[in-house]
Each structure stands twice: as structure tokens, then as C-alpha cells.
Amino acid sequence: MNKQLVAGLACLTVCALSACGTDSDSAETDATPMPSASVVPSEVVLSDVDAPAGYIHADVADTLDSDIGEVSNEEVIAMFTEISDSTVTDPEVCGALVPTAVDTVLRLNEDRAGTAVSEYASDGTDGTDSAITVVATTSETGPRVPESLDECTSFTRTSSSGDTEASVTYRVSPLDLDVEGADGLIAARAEADQGGAAESTTVVAGTVDGVYFQINATGPIDDQLVSDLAEKQIGKIEGA
After folding, report:
1. Which one-letter DSSP state was computed for residue 55?
2. Measuring CA to CA, which residue among 214, 210, 211 is closest to residue 144?
3. Full 3-state SS string of 116-176
4. Is residue 178 within 8 Å of residue 188, measured between CB atoms?
């Protein structure tokens, strides 16, 4: 339900409720330190060469720029904006912990120069279904994981379409991951109850040299794999 863009935007156009909804009231953070002028998010975000074993990489910008059959980029963005406007997260500040595919697309579309997104999807060889989203941004504003998780131990995302309404409740707990080198590092696990089917998302976020990054790993993914990706992301930003 809360899958990301790796499989292509086509699959997202059909899931207009909870998983593909976003929070039109998502909180934006205060200005953050400006990064070095030489840092280009698309050059430092994790890429195909960083893909974990058993995962397939996709550049979300490339996917977004590709029309889907007879559906143009503009039509996709208009549809996603409509979904965004009909979705609310309570408390709203918690929505950034588990951004949906719609969140990701709209954020990238609004800030092509300052934001980059990579996606990894499991190739199915191990019999599991999991996805990883990596965002790197130099934008001073935008949805970010809250500095304190106290308000987000439990939050609900509700999406509506016509007479239909769907809600997903997330329960969040801090996670002890061995990751160093980022300012304000937050690591957490969000467990979602979606009609009786539990789904787990691991979240890691922080700032390196003024560049904010966030990793969301959904599905049965080992914590060490997430830690390794976070360390790689930190290293690429530091080396820019």
C-alpha cells in the first residue's frame, strides 16, 4: 500500500487513497544552514552504484519526466496535487516521518534544482517485497522529520475521495542505529496498521554540511542495510 516509485508512476495512479495520499498541511521547517554552493543534490544522492544486493535502482526525476502512455507529466502532477489536497495527517508535523509516493513526487517536482530522489525496489529473488527511498535536498524549507518524536508516537493519515475515506494509523518508536557523521540524526521505526496488515518503515534522517537527507525503508529490511546506506549517503555528501 505505501510503496514508492521504483515500479514506475503508472502503478501510483491507481492508488489514490491512503498509501498514495499525502498531507497538504505538511509542516515546513525553519531555515537551515546553507550548504556549499558546489553541492548539487543530484550528484550526491545515492545512485545505481550504491544499490544494495537484490535491489533495483530508479532515478525518480527520470521517471517523472517520462509520460505514462497517454498520461502526460502535467496530468500526473495535477492528479497528485488533488490527492494531496484531500489528505490530512494528525498531528501534521508527523507526516514527514513516512512520506508517501505522492509526497516524494510533488516535493521533487517543486524543487528540481535543490532536491534529488533515488528509489530502490527488491528484485524478488529473496521472496520479499520491500522498497527504499532516499532524498537529498539543499532546500531551506520543506517537510522534515521532527527533531523530537514525542509528539509522533502515534499519528493518523486520512485520505478521502468522494464518499470514500481511508485512514492509516502509525505507531513510532526511536531506533538505535550505529550511524555517525550527521547533525541532528533521527532514526525511528514506524509501524502502520492498514486494514489488519502491519507494515514497517525504518526512517533515518539528518543534515551533513547543510544538506538534508532522509531514508525510508519499507518492508522486511535489515537494520544493518539501512545503516550502511545512511553511512554511504553521509560519505557522498561529505566528499562533494
Report:
1. E
2. 214
3. EEEEEEECCCCCCCCEEEEEEECCCCCCCCCCCCHHHCEEEEEEEECCEEEEEEEEEEECC
4. no
* CA gap 123, 135 in Å, rounded: 21
More confident residue, 37 or 70: 70
Most confident of 29-43, 65-79, 99-113: 99-113
**Three cell numbers written together for 192:** 502502520
Compute the distance between CA of residue 161 and CA of residue 82 in angstroms, rounded to an integer: 10
Q: Which of these, 222, 218, 1, lies nearest to 119 by C-alpha position? A: 218
Does residue 205 carry a pLDDT above 50? Answer: yes
Whether the CB-CB separation of 192 and 198 falls below 8 Å is answered with: yes
> How many whole angstroms separate alpha carbon 159 and alpha carbon 161?
7
pTM: 0.83
Which tens digit of pLDDT belongs to each residue from 62-100? 877 776 667 787 888 898 888 888 889 999 999 999 998
Q: Which of 213, 204, 203, 200 is nearest to 240 (CA)?
A: 213
Q: Is 54 exposed, middle or buried (0-12, 13-18, 19+ CB in 10 A)?
A: middle
